[in-house]
Amino acid sequence: MVNFSNVYGNGNAVLVNELGGFKVIEHQKDLSVSPYNAVTEYFASKMNLRRRQVMIELNNSGCILQAGAMQWISGSVDVSSGIKGVGNFLGKAVKAKVTGETISKPEYKGTGFVMLEPTYKYILLIDVSKWGSIVLDDGLFLACDDTLSQNIVARSNISSAVFGGEGLFNLSLSGNGILACESPVPMDELIQINLQNDVMKIDGNMAVAWSGSLDFTVEKSTKSLMGSAASGEGLVNVYRGTGSILMAPTIKAGKSKPTDSNSDNGPSQAHTDGVSTTDLVGGIMGMFK
Predict the structure, then answer these.
(1) Tens digit of pLDDT for each residue in 175-200?
(2) Phi and psi of 212, rounded to 5°?
(3) Spatial distance between the Cα atoms of 269 and 245, rounded to a whole number of angstroms
(4) Are 103 and 93 in contact (CB under 8 A)?
(5) Could you write out the DSSP letters of every residue in 94-114?
(6) Distance CA 41, CA 34 (A)
(7) Tens digits of per-residue pLDDT, 92-138?
(8) H or E stretch at 146
């Protein structure tokens, strides 16, 4: 079996987080640079724009990944497609269509290591048992223990799909196990809000995950539509009940969450509010000419 320290012992790849069998590896800087992208890579590493990977250690256990997420496997690990028959395939196809996930989520079982492809997004490790059940925003799922159950939940009314920016259906996970998500923002910028038979109103789709026990609707910010227009807030996402919300307050209300993921083209492909890192660095360097 591959020894973890033998794989990552060069000082550039650092273990920054772990939970259960899940380990998050962060490459402090991109060492494969050329004279043409060295400046971009330098500023990217200083701004915390780094490649990150998830390594999953299996001990006679299993995990489920997004299709195409695996980079390499070590040890006695068996792989299956996660699809069991035609009916199961059709069901997964429907789920994939409405949640933005892949149809097939391969399953890995045995004893060994599973390394995932690098991503420039931020990796969140979540103990689902502490949530009871957790609902994810579209596209966040990366991997999880196979002990978790996956279900599709529908919003409580059509308004949440039309106006809420969260979609009509979302992926929900429950049980005992670890979940790994690809987040548009780091954990340091996320706020967990715990509700106890209370109400939370959010202007925009800033909630990246929330408890399955919460009722999610979209409502006017004031009692009247005229009042909502006058206040400048309009419609807001409303979460009622008892549970938790994981919110990214740095995501601008009304803006779509970033979707750049496992690209090997480097930081030049990452975007913020429509401005590429290359353009941003070029503008900064131009100030010194």
Answers:
(1) 999 999 999 999 999 999 999 999 99
(2) -65, -15
(3) 30
(4) yes
(5) HHHHHHS--S---EEEEEEEE
(6) 9
(7) 445 554 445 555 689 999 999 999 999 999 999 999 999 999 999 88
(8) none
Contact 138, 182 (CB under 8 A): no
Burial of 188 (0-12, 13-18, 19+ CB in 10 A): exposed
Residues contacting residue 191 through CB under 8 Å, at least 6 positions apart: 246, 247, 248, 249
**Segment 219-270, tens digit of pLDDT:** 876 655 444 444 445 788 889 999 999 999 887 544 445 444 444 444 544 3
Token pair of 30, please?
């991109």
| Global confidence as pTM | 0.75
Q: Is 273 left (phi over 0), alpha (psi -120 to 50) or beta?
A: left
Task: Decide: 102 and 67 in contact? Cβ < 8 Å.
Answer: yes
What whole-number distance in Å separates Cα of residue 85 and Cα of residue 221? Answer: 47
